[in-house]
């Protein structure tokens, strides 16, 4: 692993972004829709940084990952407006979509399963829809973390905002560790390897 916990900070501007999608506010902690937040928090912990700087409508931190200076982001715009935060940061650093890794929940995957895509449509995920719409591009590498299919009788909005059970959270935490490895591979230019290893 190339995550470095204690090394001199890289000079210069950030060249990549890892954004985990979710909703702010305490009431949304540990909910399915916040799987992206959970994963990015795990990445930050591994890198020895705290995502506590408020900028670009997000909580942010900079970290060295795979020899690159990376901006870690948790947009505070609420899920459906995630693009507002991401595009602001992209414009500031002049970072192209190909250098932005987006991590978010996917109810079409079993809890804790992971799927990596090089680019593509939003797949019904409204955070990605906002990002694609406001950036004008669908060329974002993405890491989707499974949060389980909606049970019969549940409204979709209620399901994605429901909390993980203890056993489910354990699976999500394990997926977050894999997401760290996948993100490092993607940032290092090895997305095919990441897809082969984790899909």
Number of strands: 7
Shape: globular
User: C-alpha Rg, in Å?
Assistant: 15 Å
Order of secondary-structure elements: EHEEEHEEHEHHH
Q: Under CATH, the topology is which?
A: Rossmann fold
How are the strands of the largest sheet arranged? 2-3-4-1-5-7-6
Low-confidence stretches: 3-8
Helix content: 25-40%
Annotated CATH architecture: 3-Layer(aba) Sandwich
With helices defined by DSSP (H or I, 4 residues minimum), what is the helix count?
6
The largest pleated sheet is described as:
7 strands, mixed
Secondary-structure class: alpha/beta
How does this model look, in words?
The chain has one domain (16-198): Rossmann fold. Helix content is 35%, strand content 20%. It is built from six helices and seven strands, in the order βαβββαββαβααα. It has helices at 35-47, 82-93, 126-135, 156-160, 166-187, 191-198; strands at 16-20, 53-55, 58-65, 68-75, 100-106, 114-117, 142-146. Helix 1 packs across helix 5 (166-187). Residues 3-8 have low confidence and may be disordered.
């Amino acid at each position: 692993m190339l995550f470095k916990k204690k090394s001199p900070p890289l000079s210069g501007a950030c060249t990549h972004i890892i954004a985990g999608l979710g909703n702010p506010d305490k009431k949304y902690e540990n909910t399915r829709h916040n799987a992206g937040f959970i994963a990015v928090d795990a990445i930050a912990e591994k890198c020895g940084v705290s995502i506590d700087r408020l900028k670009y409508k997000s909580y942010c931190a900079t970290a060295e990952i795979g020899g690159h200076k990376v901006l870690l982001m948790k947009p505070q715009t609420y899920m459906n407006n995630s693009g507002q935060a991401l595009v602001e940061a992209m414009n500031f650093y002049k970072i192209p979509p190909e250098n932005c890794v987006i991590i978010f929940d996917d109810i079409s995957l079993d809890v804790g399963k992971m799927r990596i895509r090089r680019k593509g449509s939003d797949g019904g995920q409204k955070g990605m829809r906002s990002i694609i719409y406001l950036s004008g591009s669908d060329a974002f590498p993405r890491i989707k973390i499974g949060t389980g299919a909606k049970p019969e009788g549940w409204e979709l909005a209620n399901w994605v905002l429901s909390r993980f059970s203890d056993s489910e959270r354990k699976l999500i935490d394990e997926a977050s560790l894999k997401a760290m490895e996948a993100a490092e591979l993607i940032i290092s230019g090895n997305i095919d390897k990441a897809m082969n290893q984790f899909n």
